[in-house]
Design goal:
The protein is mostly beta strands and about 425 residues long. The chain contains one helix and 41 strands.
């Protein structure tokens, strides 16, 4: 981020702790100000200066663009700092907490936006046979350590223009309210526990915004959304900034999770699959360490990934065990150390795996055991890491065509 002013500029870095200027020690400043992720331009008049700043969400951090109507000096820096304090307080902290709906314990029925915000003071529970429904625009704010567990059904009915939000009680920016009565604050990953679906439960999360969950206690799920045996669909939603995982599906019972037209970002693993079946389609998975992590040898899970864009996932779009029956097509990836699915382990006994055209399959040392078959389809690209390759005791079937050859090439081959 840059402070712009006539005749020059000052580089400024911004994170959740405030603003700092590491590149200009002589003019280094630090502000303990929490800024909004909204994109409204804000003008603050202070001591004869007019400071205009616009805040834009970027990953797990915030960037700030400031334009100042005067030459800069150390005095100006001090005045700017004061102006930003005043502006941040007026813009984000001046709205006191209004009447909230305090909720805890066993819940059911329908929550309307007229009750916003719903502040969770003790963990919520949806009992077997019961349903909790959320109308468009409902905001649910969790105190530290609380969450929602469903043995029944959770139905979230947001719209594209009025999403239903699950967030931290510290996240004053979601509705402009100081819900925790602790002054201007923003949420942080791990502020609350998770939305957890147990065996026999169901969840339909449509146009939801779920963030800042994944509390990392010993018995916690470390995820914003955890599926421990339920049937869950997530559509048109954003799951972001969990302490470790966005969505985690456990190897418990017969869980299934279907993710479509959604956004997973700002976590160690956007989607962590340990068992069951899952699909990801038409979605954006970005700015995670791994987009999808399905490195499990315990259970043969099925995973379908189609029409999904992976961007800036630091290590790779995905890491997938050959124990997982992966179907991949129509995906794209940029900005990672490896822009393909990292395939690990060995095929299960008496199994068949098919690799299709699309994202490359990046392999270390992969084994096809006796009785199992690996099919490499037309247009598929296989890239061994340095020293890696395939060892085949079963069957390898390479089915390229004159128009769509199957490729085995170097990890360095970007053609």
């Amino acid at each position: 981020m840059i402070f712009h002013f006539p005749g020059g500029s000052i580089p400024i870095a911004v994170d959740r702790n405030g603003i700092r200027s590491p590149e200009t020690p002589a003019r280094s400043v630090r502000y303990a100000v929490a800024f909004s992720t909204r994109s409204d331009a804000v003008y603050t008049a202070f001591a004869g200066f007019v400071v205009k700043y616009r805040v834009i969400r970027f990953d797990m951090y915030h960037s700030l663009s400031v334009r100042i109507s005067s030459n800069i000096s150390r005095l100006h820096i001090r005045l700017i700092r004061a102006a930003l304090f005043v502006g941040a307080f007026l813009f984000f902290g001046a709205t006191p907490a209004h009447a909230a709906t305090l909720v805890s314990g066993t819940v059911s029925g329908t929550w309307a936006s007229s009750g916003n915000p719903y502040v969770v003071t003790g963990s919520l529970y949806v009992a077997p046979g019961a349903t909790l429904s959320l109308d468009p625009g409902v905001v649910v704010k969790f105190h530290f350590g609380t969450g929602l567990t469903a043995d029944g059904s959770l139905s979230v009915n947001g719209t594209a223009s009025e999403k239903a939000v699950f967030t931290s009680v510290k996240d004053d920016l979601v509705d402009g309210q100081d819900s925790g009565n602790d002054g201007p604050t923003i949420g942080a990953p791990g502020d609350w526990n998770s939305i957890q679906f147990n065996g026999g439960s169901s969840g339909s999360l449509s146009n939801a915004d779920i963030r800042y969950g994944g509390w990392t206690c010993f018995s916690c799920t470390f995820a914003n959304v955890a599926n421990k045996g339920g049937t869950v669909t997530i559509a048109g939603s954003r799951v972001s900034r969990g302490a470790a995982y966005g969505i985690r599906q456990f190897n418990v019972g017969t869980p299934s999770t279907d993710i479509s037209s959604s956004e997973l970002d700002g976590q160690e693993r956007g989607f962590f699959l340990e068992g069951g079946s899952a699909s990801v389609s038409g979605s954006s998975v970005h700015d995670n360490l791994y987009g999808i992590f399905a490195d499990t040898g315990a259970t043969v899970a099925s995973l379908s990934v189609t029409g999904t864009t992976f961007t800036n996932n630091a290590t790779a779009p995905g890491r997938v065990s050959l124990a997982v029956d992966l179907a991949s097509s129509g995906n794209a990836a940029t900005g990672g150390l490896r822009n393909g699915f990292i395939m690990v382990g060995a095929l299960p006994p008496a199994s068949t795996r098919t690799w299709n055209a699309g994202l490359p399959y990046v392999i270390g040392s992969v084994n096809v055991p006796a009785g199992s078959t690996l099919v490499v389809g037309p247009g598929a690209v296989v890239k061994p890491e340095f020293g890696g390759g395939l060892s085949v005791d079963g069957t390898l079937s390479v089915n390229g065509t004159a128009q769509a050859k199957a490729y085995f090439t170097s990890i360095k081959d970007d053609e």
